[in-house]
Amino acid sequence: MTLPSLVTPENRNWIEREERTNQLVRRLAAWCFLNEQPTAEQIYGLAKLTWITQSYNEIHESYIRSTKIPALGHIFATDFGNAPLEEVAGWVASQTKSPELASLIRSHTGFTNLYPAYRNQARKWCHNNYQDLLPIVQMAYSIRTEEDGIEVIRRVAELPRIPNGNSAQGYTDAATLLTPLCFALDPHQRFPIINKDPGVDQLLRKLELSGSTLEDKYQGLMKMYTLFPGMLPNAAVLDQSARALIALIEQTGTSPEDSSVRVLRTAALPLKDESDVEAVHRQMEFSQRRIHNAMTNQVRSLLRKRFRVEESKSRETLFDIKIHNYDGNGNNLLVEVKSAAEDGTIRMAIGQLFHYWYTEHGSLDSAHLALLLPEKPSKTMCGLLDALEIGVMWLDRKRLFTRNDWLGALAAISYF
Fold this sequence. Notes:
By secondary structure, the chain is of the alpha/beta class. It is built from 17 helices and eight strands. The chain is 53% helix and 9% strand. Strands 3-4-5-6-7-8 form a six-stranded mixed beta sheet, sandwiched between helices. It has a two-stranded antiparallel ribbon with strand order 1-2. Helix 2 (40-48) runs antiparallel to helix 3 (62-76), helix 2 runs antiparallel to helix 6 and helix 7 (130-141) packs antiparallel against helix 8. The termini are far apart. The model is unreliable at 259-272 (pLDDT under 50).
């Protein structure tokens, strides 16, 4: 059976527009990463670049003045006033030293029509939820595998809803704001857009997923790539061809249950200059190392008031901190320092701690282990650490905190 192309003269312009939005947002996000890390205002600006005004049926240039230029203002902390788009595009290209940005800014971008009542509220919401938003943006920008995408959508699902500025009773899910942004950050352009678009909602109903969790919706839409291989190069085509996909499902008699294959992301799409990608990753790694080193030095300085503290000098046990006789009973505590409190980071640290202790002692019996994080971890991770008898400490305003009674003597030192 010969299947029709999902890219048609009717949807081609919007597909290309979504793809351009991805290129624009990723290049601007790269600039934000190279200047430490995106602020809440910059994340709001990046999300705002995915918006349009009025209608999907035709291009309304009013979005340039009401949405696009203000979005760039949020990213660059600049009031562009009544400056024409051409002037703004040139200024941004000069600031970022990226001539390609001028062309992308001058081109039509944006594709999602977020309900106006949520637009101003979204800005406040980004600031209120910044600590949870930042790792989502970082992960979406660096998605490599399907598992990475699932972790992103799980985090989006955990965020509170965005209130309606016109009514205390009205809310929209965080996915309405963030899945377009995650697509725009995704280096492979495959992150599905789940933002209450009527076509996508119809497709989800066809897949019997309309009442399912956000993660189930995500995985159901991701299966479209394997059900129709070669027809869906990216989520822009998926977004703009939802109704055509319904017809294809009916025509071919295909069921989502026909495939449970998880798609691995293997082909890298723009940024066009791979050196840009490497530079961003190097800067992110540098920032993490700097945070890690600052935390380690601060805790060593605090604890040396009362304890003998050392770092590993062995290549086999690269622990960050060993606190000798930390409990007054002759036991030493191994501490692994992490610059982020994300679940994945904590899972990695758990394995490191067990490996270091086993290498030193040949057994995990009576292990004395703890994590040092920049903030208190999630409830789930706290439960996991409790089950594994691993303590957790975190820093806040140069003071050390813990949720474990047996580490209380260490935390108390920071108050003197």
